[in-house]
Amino acid sequence: MAARQAIALVAGVGPGTGAAIAKKFASLYSVVLLARSPNSYETTVKEINEAGGTAVGFSADVQDEASVKNVFEQVAKEFPDRPVAAAIYNVGGVFSRKPFLEQSVEGFKLGYETSVLGAFIFAQAALPHLLSAAKSPIPHPPSLFFTGATAAIKGSPYLQSFSPGKFALRSLTQSLAKEFGPGGVHVSHLIVDGVIDTPKTAEWLKGAPEGSKIDPAAIAETYWALHQQPRTTWTWELDVRPYVEKW
Amino acid sequence: MAARQAIALVAGVGPGTGAAIAKKFASLYSVVLLARSPNSYETTVKEINEAGGTAVGFSADVQDEASVKNVFEQVAKEFPDRPVAAAIYNVGGVFSRKPFLEQSVEGFKLGYETSVLGAFIFAQAALPHLLSAAKSPIPHPPSLFFTGATAAIKGSPYLQSFSPGKFALRSLTQSLAKEFGPGGVHVSHLIVDGVIDTPKTAEWLKGAPEGSKIDPAAIAETYWALHQQPRTTWTWELDVRPYVEKW
Amino acid sequence: MAARQAIALVAGVGPGTGAAIAKKFASLYSVVLLARSPNSYETTVKEINEAGGTAVGFSADVQDEASVKNVFEQVAKEFPDRPVAAAIYNVGGVFSRKPFLEQSVEGFKLGYETSVLGAFIFAQAALPHLLSAAKSPIPHPPSLFFTGATAAIKGSPYLQSFSPGKFALRSLTQSLAKEFGPGGVHVSHLIVDGVIDTPKTAEWLKGAPEGSKIDPAAIAETYWALHQQPRTTWTWELDVRPYVEKW
Amino acid sequence: MAARQAIALVAGVGPGTGAAIAKKFASLYSVVLLARSPNSYETTVKEINEAGGTAVGFSADVQDEASVKNVFEQVAKEFPDRPVAAAIYNVGGVFSRKPFLEQSVEGFKLGYETSVLGAFIFAQAALPHLLSAAKSPIPHPPSLFFTGATAAIKGSPYLQSFSPGKFALRSLTQSLAKEFGPGGVHVSHLIVDGVIDTPKTAEWLKGAPEGSKIDPAAIAETYWALHQQPRTTWTWELDVRPYVEKW
């Protein structure tokens, strides 16, 4: 297969992990970036194209089924006959950390919906393409990857609007891995345990030892390593954390 | 404290586990039964009252915040000055078992909302009363218990509309246990692994060895045992399954 | 069955949990107490007998197969024809908390052997009796219970001689629950998360809120509640911790 | 650093996973192979050397502290001043699958000792070298990796001599990750869920779909990917299984 004749989609592309994943997968694939606002993906799209890759961005609301389906239709038009080699859901949950009795029903639903409802919609739109790609001559098994959090395995006080959605996402990925593995789609769940080093967290962990934040590029490398696994040897779940993290 | 001078609320009262829990807790408390339809609780209310206990039923939709708050207000009117000694969320998730690609967004949300959104609303309505009861001279620490399922710890194919909600519920109960334990409220999560013996399952597991279904009365006894634990020695989570269950 | 016509064995009887379990089970059974030294069980044996119960103590080293088998033979002589209704392994692991590079091979083995080798030997001696009791008219299903620790589910620095043995014990109890459940033996694993209130820990947690230590009598009540579960509704695992415990 | 100026040690080198790991790590390092018998490593050593790499084999019994220490001393003599970049424990547990009541104390200990005692001894011999390497200019953080099994997280009937040792090994690796991560040593535990494709398993899974066995070379690639992770982004645990595996 010629270079970039297959597609990788990345949903949830801000200046951190999503951008790093898009750049990494752009080494082999044409990449499609999804974010709510063009601001989130424009810089990355530009950087990839300028570096000789192929990237295009779409505005979409992952919680809106029509919006996500629309992106997949546009992608099919823009890149006809190209298999989807990877679909990566990297949308962070939106939530507010607060005492349980101060949490609203809307706040609780919001945490859930941003974490897992969007993942459901994205997976449902992507899977027919990935199943189809499993029968195409692409270099690696088609992959459906999800970025999770420590909150996916541990409930904590004041995180009642965040953690249930991450637990639910983890369950969903396990269901999908079991249902679609035999069909040739590699489903993985990556647990991020620690602070990711992004512009937003630049001021966090001041005074901590050097290297105390997770490197987005290293997350991207880890996803890339999973993507390269042959179907005989697939990872469903792994964790990543900085060397100094307490856990 | 005189007999039945405190209240136990049970949400999700059909002819199985909910009814058994209500009857067990009626040995010490006035019990309040919540279900969507009076059909679900009328028989149990009658049985408890005829046996010398005190029971009252309310129709409520646990996914509707106003509906649940209204029940708590009515309970406060009907039983003024009685502490809430126990609030038990036993509402089963409504879901459809089907291939992921045939699942609708509405079907996915329904599974989540019946499992965990109702639990959120119920817990938020109950906790102020339970925290207050922790300072009252009631015989056992006030308890907030939730009935879960194996699907709370294991994702399975075709259960993508059920299992994520149960994972989420488990997370919620852990958050609550950690936040409200120090305030004196005992939060527990009971994982049911197997078929519960109810009228609905009467025809299931035909030919299996005697005793292959979980006894609702034994679930009630187990909840009762947890309720009696002093605050020095609280169980957050346990499992129950029949002796012949494979796991 | 007349009172105390069945036997409960408790291995690991010091002045804390083991004594409390023995006293609780003495309400229905003749109890046999095992400890390395008579000092550990003499007071409890005396208290049970003086209170109208039946108790006898044996010195045994649970890591020595011959020693444990010998106890079971003596018990069979002393109480012929009495079924064994419960066998409870409550032996704490002996270990030293230290940096990994300062740990000796002997120290590492010691932690393992006290936690899990003794459990293996005790279970193997007890199971033929419990399987036989499952066919006898005893009031509750015969029970094989093990006291575990948080270290059974979480590895920690400096606890490398303790935690692996507790993980191993947890695995063993799960194997046994799955193999012997269908034969009618109830196997449980109780995770103790926190400091147990015993003479040895009297000076610990000074300044902590009242009730910060786990009550041995409440552990005994919890084991008793599990023992009463019918075979339709068995708990394999639960945790207990004080209301103020961080986890 | 010039090519192969650092060392990777692999313990447990038969014709499957161990050989594949040794070959992969030989692309960057001089490799040292440990096995009980020269038969196990001779072919691999020859292949690596003939392919232009550097390999040497040592006979050692990982359960014998003196034997393992002796290897590390010989390595220090043979490769003076070369940092140890990786130490990989891939020794399979020796055990017999049988009913619990037919298991001997010796059989139970054997399973444990081959799984976890050897790991303890190997880790203790390797860690001073790895800690020292963390301060050397080697290309990737020094790594201490362990091959585990599904039996590390799930107890099963008849596997009572295997699974407890694997649970214990998992605990040990977590203790080590937490203690030595801050010192710059990357500790990982890889859960193998399925049959590994080796000469020994050639006749297994006849009739299963193509690709039903785990590829040793892919395990080696996965370890290599973990080894390349920077210290900001380390994986402690992951699983691998074939695409058709039920779990």
Automatic annotation (TrEMBL), chains A, B, C, D:
It comes from the Eukaryota. InterPro entries: NAD(P)-bd_dom_sf (IPR036291), SDR_fam (IPR002347). This is NAD(P)-binding protein. It comes from Orbilia blumenaviensis.
